[in-house]
Structure formats: structure tokens, C-alpha cells
Amino acid sequence: CSPANLDACDDEKKAKIKELQAMDPSLLSEKVEEQEGRIKELEAEFQTLIEELVKMHEAAEKKTEEVKAIKDGGLGLMKAVLTHDKNAKAGSAEL
């Protein structure tokens, strides 16, 4: 479907093509430039969002690594010792 091949168009597209063909060429060119400018703005905004998401992801990964380092640094053993000592003391108190 195109202005050169209207037979391939449905009625809605044909009407839109005829409407656009009836427009002043300078006005149509202005509208095209506006739309292309808007696309460039949106693509720039999208790229900024992607960069922000990458930074957020990197920060989240760093936090995950910090948590893992704490756990690998002996937190589990510390908890086990506390639990064992607490249970041992409770067992001694019963005697």
C-alpha cells in the first residue's frame, strides 16, 4: 500500500493517502519534520532511561555482592555459635 499502489490499500489507508496528497507540500513537509523531531526526542529519552536502568542494575548487583560477602564472612557460623551457646546454657540451667 502506497500512493503508487493504491489498489493494495484498504479504504482507510486510501482515504488517508488522498488526504495527505491534498495537503500543501510545504505543510506536509513541516509535519514530517515535526514527527521526525519527536521521534528523535523519544529515542533520546529512551536511551537516557536505558542508561539509568543500567546504573540501577549495577548498584543492585553491588548490594547483592555486599550481602553475599557478609554471609560468606561468617555470619552463618556466628549465628550457629550463638544458638549452640544459648542451647548449652539452657541445658546447664536445667540440671
Walk me through what this model shows.
It is a single chain. This protein is mainly alpha-helical. The mean pLDDT is 94. The longest helix has 70 residues, at 25-94. It is 86% helix and 0% strand. The protein is built from two helices and no strands.
Which secondary structure elements does this structure contain, and how are they paired or packed?
Blueprint: H1 11-22, H2 25-94
Characteristic terms for this protein:
95 residues; mainly alpha; 2 helices; 86% helix; rod-shaped
Short description:
The chain is an all-alpha fold.
How much of the sequence lies in strands comes to under 5%
Please state the average pLDDT score: 94
Name the helicity range. over 70%
| Total number of strands | 0
